[in-house]
Specification:
heterodimer, A: alpha/beta, nine-stranded mixed beta sheet, 18 helices, 11 strands, 12% strand, elongated, B: alpha/beta, five-stranded parallel beta sheet, four-stranded mixed beta sheet
């Protein structure tokens, strides 16, 4: 990407509020440099005139690129190898087309060693309320840690609460984590997460479709959520209140054909109401990182069964159980006495007794059998 | 004619060799020379023969007499040659070439008055004569029943030397062959007498069906000996060939009864725990004589209080258990006796052996050492191990157990099934089958093998133990009339392994 093209992309990124489908079509038709020229000179038609009118005279592309270079970042566009074409193809699906603003981004401002296409191949989004509880943060960190350990990138929004816990969990496990911002790349929002975002820039990836200096706004969060949902193979809502941005991300994930997961919480907790609503609407129940890996991982990468509490009597056959129950809690019995107590012929008691003895449930001494002490 | 000739048989082990006996009368001072490696009993035979010949009215040579037994290098023992020596001398002295003498093998000891006395080892001797193609054999009349067991050879019983001489001349008759009655099973030892002890009873039945070796442990008085004694009664009767083998051994050992010489029931031999190695496996100077294990050939060798038996004696059992034969080398050569027996071991759980095991006063070490004396290789050959419990009130139960006859029918059917199955592989009973064959060609289905696999994985069962369990499982399936062992058979077979031991 030469400087002219880069400047053109940077200019185009700011000139219309993304996502702007008309501008994207123009760029696709004539290329970024020509498109930037036309926008600047006002040689436009139709809706695009209105969409670009307000900002077309602001040209701070060179300064923006300087800021980006200062952060060690790069512009990622559809012309780059890094562009996650497959992930963004989901916007063309029938579920996504019915939603407003359902378009792929035109330009992404990215900082960090992670590659977008790598991330999109194997990633899960962990999102949730900013007003999280200790339970939610614990689960989010736990999930992120488990996912990072299994090579799954953790995508989130960098906000307080669940998002922050997820990023920190992934970073603590030396995993790859991606923060998708709703403002400019140089605007650490929330301010309290400036240090966290710096760490993500160093070890993971910070991505936004807004040019530097752009302040986050309510509608931008909702627009940003579609990127979180599309970059991840599954979206896990750890905690969400009745009205929550996380529910919006989950809705985007559903519309984009991604798996929607929710972590159940206490039914008395207002922070889990949104999760339970999602679960009622057929979201996947997720309690362990393995459950998420099963959804975003390779084919056949299945979660092991939940560990179950086992009783030593579980694996026994019917007759073995009968013989076991025929033995008294205390004291030993001869073969004939066991046969009477179990109602089985003496010869058929021998086999089960041998099996019970081998499994350590019964001990034989002096030709008698008794229950093993446990 | 001053040369006389007669024939007899030298029995070495269970094989016999024809011995030619020559008497040569020549001029010289009266004397008797006996040549051909005679032992002390045979040296003394000069005096017996001389007295007997004189007392039956014949002449004893008044000049020099040389008696030669050939083959000259074969050591000869005992009094069996008396009759042949006497016949050779009479033939030489009387210068008569009796046609019958030339065609007859003579066996028997002589009394001074000319009576013919019974000897040991008649059956193998007669068998050897028959094998060598001799048409007739004369035996002491007391051994006639035993000799009559052999078909295809003329058998005559001689009462006195005079009678024999007349028979040579065609002037008298000897006693002809008699039919020996079959020995009946011992009616006193019936399995019905054993009350309770279902596990041990079943083990005895399984042992009988699969020819497995058996070990019973338990406090005194619970019926270990009783059960062991009933095992031969469950075994099928011996075939004719087997009977002859067994009878020949007993004949060499001098243990045959006069009335029913043919042993048709599997023998039961129970040596005392203090028995020496020689008593157990055979031995003695000169040429070894059969021991307890050979007498138990095709039958049951019961070692009661096996923990009290010397380690050397027990270890000596290992080769015969494996090969079914014992070779004993002594000064006069190697004797080979068959010894395919079924071993039944019985032991108390500890040296003090109280009626109730809870009253035991032995230390833990003492207890462990007691049964630990049985070496691993020996124990490995014991497929069935049962711990018997002290009988409580159940002993007074009025109902009887199953009779030996009923069990014998099942055992016979099971043995037949096993023999048919293993015939192409050269085995006759389940106990003989090699582990490799059981694990490869006759491998059970995965479900049935499951408990074994788990037990081996957990280290509760060794590979030898696995083979043993498989053998027993096959016997259990034969007894139940199934074609191949199922899960139930395998788990039941597992109950016959030693409790709490990996072996």
């Amino acid at each position: 990407m030469n400087d002219d093209t880069a400047r053109a992309w940077a200019y185009l990124s700011r000139v219309a509020e993304p996502p702007c489908q008309d501008l994207a079509e123009l760029v696709a038709a004539v290329g970024p440099v020509e498109a930037a020229d036309r926008v600047m000179c006002g040689k436009l038609e139709g809706r695009l005139v209105d969409e670009t009118e307000a900002r077309r005279r602001i040209d701070c592309a060179a300064k923006d690129l300087e800021i980006l270079t200062g952060l060690g970042g790069r512009l990622v566009t559809a012309d780059d190898d890094e562009w996650p074409l497959l992930a963004f193809a989901a916007f063309g699906g029938c579920g996504a087309r019915q939603r407003p603003r359902s378009h792929p981004p035109m330009v992404l401002w990215a900082v960090g060693p992670g590659r977008l296409d790598d991330v999109a191949e194997r990633a899960a989004a962990i999102v949730g309320t900013r007003a999280s509880t200790a339970y939610g943060e614990h689960v989010a960190a736990d999930l992120a840690d488990g996912l990072a350990g299994r090579g799954v990138a953790v995508v989130s929004g960098g906000a307080y609460g669940i998002d922050g816990a997820a990023h920190r969990g992934a970073l603590a496990a030396d995993g790859l984590t991606v923060a998708v911002l709703a403002g400019g790349i140089d605007v650490p929002y929330p301010a309290g997460h400036a240090a966290l975002l710096r760490r993500i820039r160093e070890d993971g990836l910070v991505v936004t479709e807004y040019p530097p200096g752009m302040r986050p706004a309510r509608h931008r969060f909702l627009t940003r959520n579609r990127l979180v949902a599309t970059l991840a193979g599954a979206t896990v809502v750890v905690e969400a209140g009745a009205r929550s941005g996380a529910a919006n991300t989950a809705a985007w994930a559903g519309a984009l054909g991604r798996a929607v997961c929710a972590v159940p919480g206490p039914v008395t907790s207002s922070a889990s109401v949104g999760c339970h609503a999602l679960l009622r609407a057929d979201a996947h129940v997720v309690t362990r990182a393995e459950d998420v890996v099963e959804l975003v991982g390779r084919a056949g990468e299945l979660a092991p069964d939940e560990p179950r509490s086992v009783s030593p009597l579980d694996g026994l056959e019917e007759t073995e159980r009968r013989v076991h129950d025929a033995l008294p809690a205390r004291g030993a019995r001869t073969l004939d006495e066991i046969a009477v107590a179990s109602g089985l012929p003496a010869m058929q008691v021998l086999g089960p007794l041998a099996v019970l003895e081998l499994s350590g449930l019964v001990v034989s001494r002096d030709g008698r059998w008794k229950l093993a002490l446990r | 004619m001053t040369l006389g000739r007669a024939f007899s048989v030298a029995v070495r082990g269970l094989d016999g060799a024809i011995v030619e006996i020559e008497a040569f009368i020549t001029s010289g001072l009266p004397s008797v020379n006996l040549v051909g490696l005679p032992d002390a009993a045979l040296q003394e035979s000069r005096d017996r023969v001389r007295a007997a010949i004189t007392n039956c009215g014949s002449e004893w040579p008044k000049t020099r007499l040389t008696l030669a037994l050939s083959p000259a290098t074969l050591p000869k023992m005992g009094s069996v040659y008396d009759l042949a020596l006497a016949a050779a001398v009479m033939s030489a002295e009387g210068k008569k070439a009796w046609e019958r003498l030339e065609k007859t093998v003579l066996l028997g000891e002589l009394a001074l008055d000319g009576r013919v006395r019974p000897i040991k080892g008649v059956l193998p001797a007669v068998l050897a004569a028959k094998r060598e193609g001799w048409p007739a054999v004369v035996v002491p009349v007391d051994n006639l029943a035993e000799a009559s067991l052999v078909d295809g050879i003329e058998v005559w019983g001689a009462r006195t030397l005079g009678q024999l001489r007349s028979w040579f001349g065609g002037k008298a008759q000897l006693d002809a062959r008699v039919d020996a009655p079959q020995s009946a099973p011992d009616p006193s030892a019936d399995l019905a007498d054993v009350v309770g002890q279902t596990h041990a009873r079943y083990a005895v039945e399984v042992a009988a069906a699969g020819a497995h070796n058996l070990m019973l442990t338990g406090p005194p008085g619970v019926g270990k000996t009783m059960l062991a004694q009933r095992l031969p009664g469950l075994l099928p009767p011996l075939t004719y060939a087997e009977s002859l083998e067994v009878t020949a051994i007993h004949s060499v050992a001098g243990l045959l009864s006069d009335s029913t010489p043919l042993i048709t029931r599997p023998p039961f031999v129970a040596p005392h725990p203090t028995a020496s190695v020689a008593a157990l496996v055979g031995g003695g100077s000169g040429l070894a004589r059969p021991g307890a294990i050979s007498r138990a050939h095709r039958g049951v060798l019961f070692l009661d209080e096996c923990a009290e038996i010397g380690a050397a004696a027990l270890e000596a059992l290992r080769t015969p258990l494996e090969e079914g034969v014992i070779r004993l080398a002594r000064r006069d050569g190697v004797a080979r006796y068959p010894a395919r027996f079924q071993l039944v071991l019985a032991a108390n759980p500890c040296p003090c052996a109280p009626a109730d095991p809870r009253d035991c006063v032995c230390g833990a070490n003492e207890k462990r050492r007691y049964l630990g004396r049985l070496s691993g290789p020996l124990i490995d050959r014991v497929d069935l191990r049962v711990e018997m419990h002290a009988v409580k009130t159940g002993a007074f139960a009025p109902e009887e157990g199953e009779t030996s006859a009923a069990v014998r029918t099942r055992v016979a059917a099971a043995r037949e099934a096993a023999a048919e199955r293993w015939l192409p592989h050269g085995f006759r009973t389940n106990a003989e089958v090699s582990g490799a064959l059981l694990r490869r060609k006759f491998r059970l289905d995965a479900k049935a093998m499951d408990p074994l696999r788990i037990a081996v994985d957990r280290g509760q069962l060794s590979f030898r133990g696995l083979d043993r369990t498989l053998r027993v499982a096959w016997t259990l399936c034969d007894l139940a009339g199934r074609t191949s062992p199922g899960l139930g058979d395998v788990t039941t077979a597992l109950s016959f392994r030693q409790a709490g031991s990996v072996r």
